[in-house]
Design goal:
This protein has 309 residues and is an alpha/beta fold. The protein folds into 2 domains: 198 residues, 3-Layer(aba) Sandwich (Pyruvate-ferredoxin Oxidoreductase, domain 3); 70 residues, Alpha-Beta Plaits, CATH 3.30.70. The chain has a 6-stranded mixed β-sheet, with helices on both faces. A hairpin with an 8-residue loop joins β2 and β3. The chain starts with a strand and ends in a 10-residue tail after the last strand. The structure holds iron/sulfur cluster (2 copies). One iron/sulfur cluster binds next to α11.
Length: 309
């Protein structure tokens, strides 16, 4: 069985990526499960989703604590100790990282000892879709890693996206982007240790009872350890893009200050607004709302440090 975990940020499409993969696997004749694990449902917040794929009926349920493949849709998550996307990765497993780094650079940067594949999926999404929504693209690379067919990936993207949008041009672009990602990587072999069958495991396999162990809170739910800890969380870690200022055209109208949902646009001594980047989550509402286009966006690559700075 393949057990995959997708890690992304709210709005990037981790849930849909796992669904595209599960649907493609089903169309290729496998048994499949796909499901998300939501925490705080906010744009930019860490989100995880899982897919199981097997030639046999799948009796496991619940989150995947020990995946053999991890898809990291936002590399800033690798610097977030509360997310830790590679936790539980099996010996010999694979990590696909959405980054402009080479695999060697990424392994060194993020201190990963597992096998690493890299692809700048965000750039592909921006080039081919015009937006950093990466669901079908991440589904495409995952489909390639587990060895599914192009035809099933194509049909899965069409099926899953047609439940979300009626925009045929967007759907066609997503099919093209998913296939581009599918063909952009060279899969490497998973070297997962084969479980040795013992009388105990054979007995468990033949059991009709589905075991649903109670997961500890840090696995089964978001961790809220103390009251009043929002400032410590520093949601600047969530950004995919950061707002960038051009004061030449800024009229100091303060619309951006009023519109920021997190209250993290401050005003300097000269009356110009500026961003508290420790807490700006990168929603870009300020960019949309500025009447003089004095705010642009710059792609974020490295996350700010979070708790324990
Ligand atoms: S409105 Fe602008 S400053 Fe406020 S959180 Fe969103 S991107 Fe950051
Ligand atoms: S909305 Fe635009 S023009 Fe108004 S204060 Fe903000 S950056 Fe300046």
């Amino acid at each position: 069985m393949h057990r995959l975990r997708f890690h992304g940020r709210g709005g990037q499409g981790a849930r849909v990526a796992s669904k595209v993969l599960g649907t493609a696997a089903f169309l290729d004749g496998y048994y499949a499960q796909d499901f998300p694990l939501y925490g705080a449902e906010r744009r930019g917040a860490p989100v995880a989703a899982s897919t199981r794929i097997s030639e046999e009926p799948i009796m496991e349920r619940g989150v995947i604590p020990a995946p053999d493949i991890v898809i990291v849709m936002d590399e800033t998550l690798l610097q977030d100790p509360l997310t830790n996307p590679v936790s539980g990765l099996k010996q010999g497993g694979i990590v696909l990282i959405n980054t402009a780094h080479s695999p060697t650079e990424a392994k060194a940067e993020y201190k990963i000892t597992a096998q690493v594949i890299t692809l700048d999926i965000t750039k592909i999404g921006l080039d081919m879709l015009g937006m950093p929504i990466l669901s079908t693209l991440a589904g495409g690379v995952a489909a390639r890693i587990v060895g599914l067919s192009e035809d099933s990936l194509t049909d899965a993207v069409k099926k899953v996206l047609s439940e979300i949008t009626t925009d045929r041009r967007l759907l066609a672009k997503n099919v093209a982007a998913a296939l581009y990602c599918f063909n952009a990587i060279t899969p490497i072999e998973t070297k997962i240790e084969i479980e040795i069958e013992t009388s105990d495991t054979i007995e468990k396999k033949s059991s009709k009872v589905i075991s649903l162990p109670f997961e500890p809170a840090e696995v089964s739910s978001p961790a809220i350890n103390a009251t009043g800890n929002t400032p410590l969380r520093m949601t600047g870690n969530w950004r995919v893009f950061r707002p960038a200022w051009n004061y030449d055209s800024c009229t100091r109208c303060m619309i951006c200050v009023a519109r920021c949902p997190d209250g993290c646009i401050l005003v300097n001594e000269d009356g110009f607004p500026y961003t508290d980047y420790d807490n700006c989550k990168g929603c870009l509402i300020c960019v949309e709302e500025c009447p003089t286009n004095s705010l642009g966006k710059v792609r974020e690559v490295h996350a700010k440090k979070v708790i324990g700075k």
